[in-house]
Design brief:
Elements (H helix, E strand, L loop, with lengths): L1 H18 L2 E6 L14 H10 L4 E3 L5 E3 L2 E6 L5 E6 L13 H13 L12 E8 L2 E6 L6 H4 L10 H7 L13 E7 L3 E6 L13 E6 L3 H10 L4 E3 L6 H6 L3 E7 L3 E6 L10 H4 L1 H10 L2 H9 L4 E2 L22 H11 L5 E7 L2 H15 L4 E7 L1 H10 L4 E6 L6 H8 L13 H10 L5 H18 L2 E6 L1 E7 L2 E2 L15 E2 L2
Parallel strand pairs: 1-10, 1-11, 15-16, 15-17
Antiparallel strand pairs: 2-3, 4-5, 5-7, 6-7, 8-9, 9-10, 11-19, 12-19, 13-17, 13-18, 14-18, 20-21
Helix pairs in contact: 9-11, 14-15, 15-16
């Protein structure tokens, strides 16, 4: 009896230990506001993925799959989209999820002053509650991009009553409907989430707690993984991949990103836009021609990344061979600067505080100097950089975009007049019309032709200078099981566990 009791007790303790697992994830940056409506940062999306369920999601091969919406259908004219919702879902505060909650969330995203989801949802005219589990989106015009937008923050559902009470401060204590609920945040250090036992699919999530740690230095982040302080390190440096793969006790996952890295130039956002590079496209063209993209990729990333000359990567059906990455041409760059009357322009270039950011921007600085540029580097903490870009307190910003399955998600909000991500305040009515037309059809060939018309303008005026397409690279403990890399770079924890 005594032996049996001890064995039973040991098994109970073992089961408790397994169920009480904490997953520790190292992030490159500190997220901005934990509110899907005004949220901008890539790392914020990683946190949201575990905290805020979406109406729909993507599969690893970029198909749109059910989440909170079980099914959807569009009318023949493309102007009505109807969702059938999952039954029995509650938000983390116990409030029921239903069609009224969807209506509230979409209207909040469209009207909240701080929201940057407005452009993504611009086609939605009204939202109707048909019954508790049926919601109808009435569109102003057909929108081939809307479903893809709903796989990200525009489709994330927050608890209506909590959001109403908190207003603009909702991000300080967010309440959603995902598998993990918010516990605490210490800026620049960590964010803790706890498993919600009432989540509709709680059995598929193994960890009792998720701790996201902000570790901007890639060397320190990798060291934390190796020492056992982390279970997952996101954005491992390409130069560390071979060594980590060879080290016992660790695994490496990677996938080509849907996004890009580039230089955003302030062309009309406040006084800082009056710098020469903001006022004369020839100076922007000269900077683009001064950068050897393949040389940058080789020097910084062991050649693993892909040089970029446009907003979508070669894996996209919308990539155009007509707009390859421009070859470096110092003579032409110098001639453009001379024609602009500024042979030695100064550019104050912001970049995010990280070892990768420093390396990339020092290479850009050196390459640009050979054409005559005086690039002054300004290292900026990530959330601060998001704010200064919105405020227009920058001349140039080396920053990336994590990418979306539909090309509209990489382009529209960055270029249309007043777009939520258009920090440069670029505005061209011809571009607005082209990008608007691309939303009206689902025909790939027709849309590709429109995006080529867009490229002909945007890659000449260059409010964004594209540099390279990344791979998402994760280093993980070998104990991690069930992890699947996704091209959007998100960490999905359904079915993931740590071996005992």
């Amino acid at each position: 009896m005594k032996t049996g009791f001890l064995i039973a007790g040991a098994l109970a303790l073992s089961a408790t230990a397994a169920s009480a697992q904490t997953l520790r994830i190292g992030l490159l940056d500190d997220p901005d506001l934990l509110d899907p409506a005004p949220g901008k940062s890539f790392v914020g999306r990683i946190v949201f993925q575990s905290m805020c369920d979406k109406l729909v999601d993507i599969s690893p091969d970029l198909k749109i799959v059910p989440r909170l919406a079980l099914s959807w259908e569009t009318t023949e004219d493309g102007k009505v989209l109807t969702f059938k919702l999952r039954d029995g879902v509650t938000f983390q505060d116990g409030e029921p999820f239903n069609a009224a909650a969807v209506k509230y969330n979409i209207e909040r995203d469209k009207t909240m002053p701080e929201s940057i989801r407005k452009a993504e949802l611009a086609s939605v005219d009204t939202v109707e509650v048909i019954d508790p589990l049926t919601v109808r989106f009435n569109l102003k015009k057909p929108d081939s991009t809307l479903l893809a937008a709903l796989t990200d923050r525009s489709g994330m559902m927050v608890a209506p009553e909590a959001a109403k009470q908190a207003g603009a401060k909702f991000g300080l204590n967010p309440v959603c409907s995902g598998p993990y609920k918010f516990v605490e945040r210490v800026q620049q250090d960590h964010i803790t989430l706890a498993r919600d036992p009432n989540y509709w699919n709680a059995k598929a999530f193994s960890f009792e707690k998720i701790v996201f740690r902000t570790i901007p230095d890639s060397t320190a982040r990798l060291a934390s993984l190796r020492s056992g302080d982390l279970d997952i390190a996101e954005r491992v440096e390409p130069t560390d991949v071979k060594e980590l793969e060879a080290q016992k006790g660790f695994k490496v996952f990677s996938v080509v990103s849907l996004g890009y890295q580039g230089l955003t130039i302030n062309v009309a956002n406040g006084p800082a836009s009056k710098a020469p590079i903001g006022q004369d496209k020839r100076i922007r063209q000269a900077l683009s021609l001064a950068i050897d993209r393949q040389g940058l990729v080789d020097a910084a990333f062991d050649g693993q990344f892909v040089p970029a000359g446009q907003a979508v990567p070669p894996v996209s059906p919308y990539y155009s061979d007509k707009f390859p990455p421009p070859a470096r041409d110092l003579d032409k760059a110098k001639a453009l600067l001379k024609a602009a009357g500024v042979e030695h322009p100064v550019l104050n270039l912001r970049y995010t505080t990280s070892s990768r950011g420093q390396k990339v921007n020092e290479i850009i600085q050196a390459m640009a100097a050979e054409a005559g540029f005086d690039v002054k580097l300004v290292s900026t903490e990530f959330a601060t950089q998001m704010k200064v870009q919105t405020d227009g307190d920058f001349e140039g910003s080396q920053i990336g975009w994590s990418g979306r399955p539909d090309p509209d998600g990489n382009i529209y909000s960055f270029y249309v007049c007043g777009g939520g991500l258009n920090d440069s305040h670029y505005c061209n009515q011809d571009v607005d019309k082209i990008l608007g037309d691309a939303r009206l059809t689902t025909d790939v060939a027709a849309r590709k032709a429109l995006y080529e018309k867009f490229n002909a303008i945007a890659l000449d005026e260059l409010p964004i200078i594209y540099l390279y397409f990344e791979k998402w690279i994760w280093g993980v403990t070998a104990k991690l099981q069930g992890f699947t890399p996704y091209p959007d770079g998100m960490i999905r924890l359904e079915g993931v566990k740590l071996a005992q």
